[in-house]
């Protein structure tokens, strides 16, 4: 028996920093990743798809998002089993019970709206642990496994949430207890555990039968999500379980840490940004530290302005950026200005060097602008 394990689609997700056409393209990529599961299923011979929670970003979605999402699921063409997670729980406002979803839900889409065993076909069952609120007070997996005995069918657990061995606070009551889960696998109560919530591809424990598929399309920067963009092709037979990750994601959220102290450092950053491919599908967050002259800071600003036009988004990570701008001696002596203008420049230089943080930043920005304008005039 072969199926596709995926999770954390979070359809309807918005990223506040994406502007212009970047947000619609990002949303379309998430839907395309879903619709593309049909081609992957056909290629691999998968019988069905399981989605281990957080199908939607939240329960308050526009009719357009719901309709487009259902159409993407329809395009998969084989049964798709949806598990409500912490983003889209089965509460009073659930998207799954709304009139639009229930009216337009394709026949191949099945919502696992009760905890327990669901038959896929004779000999294959899903054991579902859906969320009914955003803050469960018990281990939902332990609850659904309580009293469940081994049976003749192959059973796939479909669950969402953190596992105790991966969480620094192992005493949280809602965490999935790995020891109990692996005991159920060892006794034949379950044969594979398909988990969601962690957005990076992650194997849990030593059995090789407990996995987070991760999100099929990136949702956060690479220091948070180390390995997103996958779907798992899972085989379960008499010999055991085989899991094959397939990379399907097309977007990247990249964090670059750089020390910039000279014009050469700025030029190196320019080269690094230029070498990044698929810029229209790449989000870049820069953590920059160092001390620059006003001239070099102006060159850095020009570099960032250029690439901000090319990438889906590029900007500074303010909490991790610490750039000092210190005017160099004689840096403004060749501008060919005199009188009151020269005196104003001297005052700006003094403020940029010795003023308080607010006034120094304003003076540095004014001097950088002056240099850029002077360069344009010379050109």
From TrEMBL:
Superkingdom of origin: Bacteria
Gene Ontology MF annotations: exonuclease activity
CDD domains reported for this sequence: MPP_Mre11_N
Calcineurin-like phosphoesterase domain location: 1-183
Signal peptide (residue range): none
InterPro entries noted in UniProt: Calcineurin-like_PHP, DNA_Repair-Maintenance_Comp, Metallo-depent_PP-like, Mre11_N, UCP033093_metalloPase
Pfam families noted in UniProt: Metallophos
Entry similarity comment: Belongs to the SbcD family.
Protein known as: Nuclease SbcCD subunit D
